[in-house]
Structures are given as C-alpha cells and as structure tokens.
Amino acid sequence: MNNAESLSLEDENWDYLIILDACRYDYFAKTHGDYLVGHLSKRVSLGSSTPAWFLANFAKYHSDVIYVSGNPHINGKVPVKGIDARKNFSKIVNVWDFGWDNVLGTVPPEAINHAAIETAEAFPNKRLIIHYVQPHSPYLSKDFRGHGFPEPDIADIAQDRVLVGYKATQSGLLNTLDYRLVKTLKYLKILRTSYKFREVLGLPPASPLEATLRKFGTDGLRRAYEENLRIVMQQASRLCRQFLSTNPARRIVITSDHGELLGEKGRFGHPSRSNEPALRVVPWFQVTDTVERTQSADE
User: Fold this and answer.
1) Which pLDDT value is given to residue 277?
2) CATH code matching the domain that covers 5-164+217-298, chosen among 3.40.720, 3.30.380, 3.40.50, 3.30.450
3) What does the DSSP assignment read for 121-189?
4) What is the pLDDT of residues 268-279, one digit of tens each?
C-alpha cells in the first residue's frame, strides 16, 4: 500500500512511542517540519480503528512497558472490545480518567504531557507508549470548537459504550431506531454513510466530527482536523524536548493507530476493517530533535 511497510509495534525499536490518534500520513508529512526534526517514513497500520490496531499489535506481555493512555478503549480498569491492556503492560496510566476536560469533551494534550513526564521520572528504566487523543475529534481550535464527548464512565466503558455518549441528547428509543435503521441500510448498500441520513431526518449529530461537518462542511472539517493536529504536534514537540534534555540516548518515535477519512468517496471517520489508504497509511517518525531546540541553538 503506497510502498509502505506493514507496522508491527512489537517488532519495532523504540523507547518512547508516541501515538497520535487518527493521524493521517499526508497531514503529518505536511505539518511535522514546523515542530520536529527527524526521519519520516510510511508504514501500514494493522488496523483502521483503535481496537483493531491494538489487538493486531499487542499479543504479548511487556513487563518493561507502561502505557500512558488518553483513549478509554485502552485502560487499566476494564476490558473493552476484546482489549484488556492489563494483560499486555506492566502499568496503564489512565489519563482518560483523571485528565478529562469536561469543557473540551476530551483529554487535552497538556494532560498527556504532564502524566508522561511524571511517569518517565518515576520509572526511568521503563519504555513508554504515550497515546494522545488528537488529532481525533473533538476539535480544540476556538474557530471550530463545538460539543465534545461526555466524561467517560466506567460502567459505559465496561459495556462498550466508550465515547458514544454524544448521542445522549436523543431518547433511548430514537438512538436504537437510528442505529438499527442505519445499520440495515448500510448492509443493503442503500446508504454509504449515516451522516447525511441523520441530517436529512433532523436527528442530532452522533459525534463531534459529524457536528463539525454539518456546521463547516468538508473543507471546514479538514481545516479543523489540521489545526487539531498542529495543536497536538506542538505539545508532542514539547514532550520530546523534555525527553531529549533528560535522556538523549532514548529512541523516540511518533506514529498513529490509524488515519481518518475526511470526505474521500463521501466517507468520514475511521470504520473498522477498511483498507482505505487514508486510514491505513500512517507516519513512522524517528525524532532526533525539535524545531524550537534547533532554533535556540542557532541563536
């Protein structure tokens, strides 16, 4: 796929592995030079959604790895969608639980940075996986900010209702009818996407991405996505700068679990079991420095 190697994280060489959730290769290639210095290559993710990616990558127990997670799918409390991260890592830091911002409706990247730095200092001999939520929606830019997700509840997570509570504005019956009808129409290949269907029927958007799409259109959604990527890249750069200053010998890699459809063939989001290049081709960036550090050295 686009001359990219398949990506198996258990076989790769890294000390700090930074995951940008739903980060496309093309958008990363366009923006990373403003924040980071290093070597970029293409890889093919083993999944087009977080659960599929995780289950395809992590089969073993890694006693030397701590997972710093902003994504409730990967947590140290309960299994969800077949994922029980407690069986794979020595510790999971549940930033999604204590670092959630109810105004933004997500975990801001600053909360991930704080947890990652604390974890690295407390466990200097461990490798870390650091999972930011962004550039996944909701979009943090003030120009595109809308409703985010509700704060995750452990009961919802246990029942695989992670990050779908956005639909709580609908009645339970309407939720059920919407879901079943859309699923049936998709199965019959009458409907390629549920977004237009819900809008035509006057149903509320089912996600922050859909709300942004309705308000700003496809071009606006793409701008919101890129700004969300830049916001998280700025924070990832700051985290890398901290790591490089304290332990420059450790290998830092930035990658993604999957990409994001932003209107290609009229589709949006990141459905499971898809081979769309926009979903499966992800960055593999080996960090050597940050732009801010380089600029400071030149002054």
Assistant:
1) 93
2) 3.40.720
3) HH-TTSEEEEEEEEESSSP-STTT----PPPP-HHHHHTT-TT-GGGGGS-HHHHHHHHHHHHHHHHTT
4) 998 888 889 999
How far is residue 103's CA from residue 19's CA, in Å, rounded to a whole number?
A: 23
Per DSSP, the three-state class of 54 is helix
Residues with Cβ within 8 Å of residue 166, at least 6 apart in sequence? 147, 149, 150, 205, 206, 207, 208
| Reported pTM | 0.89
Closest CA to 266 of 196, 169, 180, 167: 196
**Which residue, chain included where needed, has tokens 């901290």?**
242
Structure tokens at 30: 């366009």
Instruction: State whether residue 283 is helix, strand or coil.
Output: strand
Mean pLDDT of 127-149: 93
Among 255, 289, 257, smallest CA distance to 28 is for 255
- As beta bridge partners, residue 252 has 16, 287
The domain segmentation of the chain, as residue ranges, is 5-164+217-298, 165-206
Residue 11 burial by CB count (10 A; 0-12/13-18/19+): exposed, middle or buried? Answer: exposed
Q: Helix, strand, or coil here: 135?
A: strand
Instruction: Name the band, by pLDDT with cuts 50, 70 and 90, for residue 14.
Output: very high
DSSP 2: T
Q: Is 224 helix (H, G, I), strand (E, B) or coil?
A: helix
Pairwise CA distance, residues 47 & 89, whole Å: 20
Question: Which of the four pLDDT bands, split at 50, 70 and 90, describes residue 176?
Answer: very low
Q: What residues have CB less than 8 Å from 276, skipping those under 6 apart?
A: 48, 259, 261, 264, 267
- The sign of the torsion formed by the CA atoms of 50, 235, 37, 32 equals positive
Q: Is the pLDDT of residue 164 over 70?
A: no
d(CA 53, CA 187): 24
Task: For strands 62-69 and 127-135, give the pairing.
Answer: parallel
Distance (Å, whole) CA 75 – CA 250: 25
